[in-house]
Design a protein that fits this description.
The protein is of the alpha+beta class. 25% of the residues lie in helices and 30% in strands. The strands form three sheets. Strands 11, 12, 13, 14, 15, 16, 17, 18, 19 and 20 form a ten-stranded antiparallel beta sheet that branches. The protein has a five-stranded antiparallel beta sheet with strand order 1-2-3-4-5, with helices on one face. It has a five-stranded antiparallel beta sheet with strand order 6-7-8-9-10, sandwiched between helices. It starts with a helix and ends with a helix.
Amino acid sequence: MKVIEFTKVFDKSKLGFGMVKLFPKVHLLTITGLSSLLIAGVATSTNSAMETKRIVQPIQLELPATGAPLVKGKNAALFDTLASVNIPAPVAIKDTWTKETVRNGDNLSLLFNRVGLSDSVLYHFINSGKAAKKLTKIHPGQEIFFNINENNQLYGLRYQKNRLQSIEFSRTDKGFSHSNVTIEPDTKLAYREATIINSLFLAGTNAGMEESLIMELAGIFGWDIDFALDIRTNDSFKVLYNEQFINGEKSGNGPILAAEFTNQNKTYKAVRYVNNKGEADYFTPEGKSMRKAFLRTPVDFARISSHFNLKRKHPILNRIRAHKGTDYAAPKGTPIKAAGNGRVVHVGRKGGYGKTVIIRHGQSYKTLYAHMHKYHQGIKTGAKVQQGQVIGYVGKSGLATGPHLHYEFYKNGVVRNPVKVQLPKAKSIPKSLLGDFTLMTRPLVAQLNKFDKTIQLATTEDKHSTINN
């Protein structure tokens, strides 16, 4: 009541300095405080037209446990106040994923520019770590996903190496963190068989096999069968492997688990075995290696255009000149593979051989590859190579009438016919692992035979049904 009376006097009177003495000290202190608040309020009101500042002050509230009903409790007045305030919902940042497929001639700069990101953004991304630097080596057909927000900021990036493997980058305060993501596909056991009428490729394709699977099959039996020379009509094969699926859609094939190939009435069988070191290779069901020390043919599915002949008449020189190797005709640019593990002892032109690579294999063996179009990257004198590694590409350099590989095989310094020479074998399963090998591979052979018998039975029933009808 006293405060109300004081306010009335204060509003209706002009207080002089002499009147201050009429008020008690307590009243004077109260007047001083109220004056300060009033001046501050006027100043704030005046400045609000120029600039508005928001001050957030935390308020301690007693919140109910999760799931419990919200009650006012002792904060009833504050609860009513907050309930009457219209608080706008926070504005969410909308992220947008954009997919770019790598084209021929593309680099990261072109991809970043296509999605509206500057070279400075690319610079900061590339320099965020070693994983990001690896993206400078991208290949046509690969996919890169960009996570860009509405302010055109790069928040994330996903590099899809293949359907099963990707690298994901996420924006952090210090740059970009990354994680490797591997999808484990669902697998289904698959079986294919075919009889060759025209070619292995045609027979495999008609049986529902992809080109890569046909090549893998040829690679397994390539030490015993020359697929450029030995294949005959009515040769046959059987293959057991895993098909891979992602979300019900086929994504690829796993490795061949077991296979059988009949060539000129001789049957070869192979099973896949992974040893205790995680190394996988193919062996006969008895444990002997399918791999020999040398490939029979260094070019896949080429045609022999000229055989080993020490009395052959040279087609260009038009005189008798020993043909010390085998010529494999193939299109220009066809990959040439090292026939065995060894060390390169020559890379360069060699007279009529043209561009030539010579590899030494231990102390006793040497192979020569001539008339190349070009050498594979990294192939130089002194380099170590592995069996099956690409060393160059078919061409017609030197004295050659057309693109082909001239291949020579030497044993103890003496040239031998590479088609007929008996190739040394690689190591078989050691006795210490023979028990584990049998345990792991016997079911594969049984499964291969089971599929074969099932198909034979179905074929027999179809024949009977046709006869009865």
